Amino acid sequence: MPTSVEFWDKVADGYARSKIRDERAYETKLKITQELFPPDAEVLEIACGTGTTALHHAPYVKHYTATDISANMLDIARQKASDLGVSNVAFEVQDIAEASWPRAHYDAVLAMSILHLLPDRAGTLAKVYNAVKPGGVFVSSTICLGEMSFIFPALIAAMKLVGKAPKTVDSLTHQSVADTITAVGFIIEDHHCMSKAKVAFIVASKPA
C-alpha cells in the first residue's frame, strides 16, 4: 500500500483534471467563506490539493498560506497561480502531523475534504484551534461516508487494498464531525448538509 505522499503524488495530475462534482454546493461554500474574511485577513488552508480553493479566495485576503503533503499537487497549484497572476498565496509542502503553526496567528483556517483522512483528527484540530486568533474561524467541508449506504464504506475499504484510495478514510457522520470540532473548544456557528447530506460544511468560531 502506498504512503499518503506517494498516493497523492501519483494521483495529482488526474486530480487536477477532475471536475467538481457539485458546482452549486462548491460556489455556496466559497461565498459563505469569503464573507467571513475580515479586511487584511491571514488565512491558512491545510490539504489544499492543486490550489483551486486557495486561488478563488486569494482576492479576498491579505495573505493566504496553502499547504499540502504532496509536492506534485503544489507544483500544479503554483503553475495555476502563475498563470492567473496571483502573488499573495504561498504554497508550502507540509505534513499535517508534523506541522507547527504559529499560535493565534490566523483569522481563518480552512480544512476542505481532509478531516475524514486524518489518522489523528483530534490532535490536528487542537493544533488548528491554537493557530486561530480569538474571534477567528475554522471552516471545514467533510464527506460523511457514515451517512451513506454501507456499500460505500465497503467499496472504499476494497479500494484501499489495491492502492486506489488513501490508507486512512473514515466513515464519519455529520454528528461525529461536529462533535470532534467542538471537543477542542470551537463553537459551531453554521452547519450545512450539502450534496444530499453527503457533506458536512461547518463554520466554527474560536471564542474571543
Instruction: Give the SSE order as H and E letters.
Output: HHEHEHEEHEHHEE
| CA gyration radius, whole angstroms | 16 Å
Mean of all residue-level pLDDT scores: 91
| Largest β sheet strand count, sense and barrel closure | 7 strands, mixed
Number of strands: 7
Task: Based on Cα principal axes, name the global outline.
Answer: globular
Range of helix content: 25-40%
* Unreliable stretches covering 5 or more consecutive residues: none
- Which percent band covers the strand fraction? 15-25%
Continuous helix count: 7
Termini, distance in Å? 44 Å
| Largest sheet: spatial strand order | 3-2-1-4-5-7-6
Structural class: alpha/beta
What does this structure look like?
By secondary structure, this protein is α/β, with parallel strands linked by helices. Helix content is 38%, strand content 24%. A hairpin with a 4-residue loop joins strand 6 and strand 7. The radius of gyration is 16 Å and the shape is globular. The relative contact order is 0.16. The model has no long low-confidence stretch (mean pLDDT 91).
